[in-house]
Amino acid sequence: MRRPIVAGNWKMYTRSADAHILATAVRNSVMNLEGIEVIICPPALWVSEVLAVVGRGGKIELGVQNMYFEAEGAYTGEISPLMVRDVAKYVIIGHSERRAYFGENNLDVNEKVLAALRSGLVPIICVGERKREGLPKEPRYQLEEALHRVPKKHYRDVIVAYEPVWAIGTGENAEPEYVAKVVSYLREVGLADTPVLYGGSVNSKNVEGYARRPEIDGLLVGSASVRAAEFASICQTWAKEKIFKA
Ligand code: 13P
User: Fold this and answer.
1) Using CA atoms, how far apart are residues 65 and 82, in angstroms rounded to an integer?
2) 169 lines ligand 1 (CB under 6 A)
3) What is the pLDDT of residue 242?
4) Number of helical H runs and strand E runs in the chain
5) Which residues are paired to 40 by β-bridges?
């Protein structure tokens, strides 16, 4: 179901004590925000610890940044959907860093999306083009592949994050108009009820431009999500603008 969302992907940042401090600061600063869902995705090792800070059923929901698609087994080093289910509700799948550094392909992404849905997790499916181009075909193709064999009725149970690779961690955020155009193009796959997020160098200074575009439901924030004041400011802007529009 479409709804305003701000998600933070902490990537491979924070030691244990930092995670505790950051989660506490985020919890305190978003506690009173109405009308948006806030998701944080810490490193998997810290999820239980962060859960103890933010609590179950509170303002903040938790996610992990990756998982394997088998329910259990001899897969050294992996975490399964069932394990994730015990501590979190969301799982980021197919992030461009997983695709680039860990060889994940569209088939893996599809298996993981199906496994997430089977286990009652909400997959946050990441797609995005590597090079800047007109209306990019790559994210649309990645999305179609990710949703292969997913019944159309489940499209409302996933989240899509459009993250152009060239905008991630570069400070070169994609213009809101451009993002809105690509998001509409992605929705043609059948995503009328699916929340679509934007990610790529979002910060407290450029967030408003995205908040004003009705096509964009939310954000997937990377580096700014490990700075508490910055993340809080992004959440506040999102809540204010999206409520105003409602
Ligand atoms: P940055 O916000 O650091 O560009 O990262 C975006 C991202 O990859 C979120 O998943």
Assistant:
1) 15
2) yes
3) 82
4) 9, 8
5) 8, 62
Q: List the structure tokens of 80.
A: 């399964």
Q: How confident is the model at residue 246 (pLDDT cuts 50, 70, 90)?
A: very low
Q: Enumerate the domain spans of the chain.
A: 5-241
pLDDT tens string 35-69: 999 999 999 999 999 999 999 988 999 999 999 99
CA 121-127-128 angle, 5° bins:
160
Q: Facing residues of 126 across strands? A: 161
Whether pTM > 0.90 for this model: the answer is yes
Please tell me the residue having the least CA distance from ligand 1 atom 7. 222
The tokens describing 5, both together, are: 């969302």
159 phi and psi angles, rounded to 5 deg = -120, 140
Tokens of 68: 């394997």
Q: Identity (one letter) of the amino acid at 136?
A: P
The answer to whether the beta carbons of residues 89 and 63 sit under 8 Å apart is yes
- The atom number, within ligand 1, closest to the CA of 199 reads 6
- Quote the CA–CA distance of 149 and 158 in Å, as a whole number: 14
- The closest alpha carbon to 182, from 210, 208, 201, 207, belongs to 210
CB burial of residue 88 (10 Å; 0-12, 13-18, 19+): buried
Amino acid residing at 239:
A
CA gap 124, 241 in Å, rounded? 23
CATH number of 5-241: 3.20.20.70
What is the rounded CA–CA span in Å between residue 73 and residue 162? 32
Q: Which of 61, 104, 129, 163 is catalytic?
A: 163
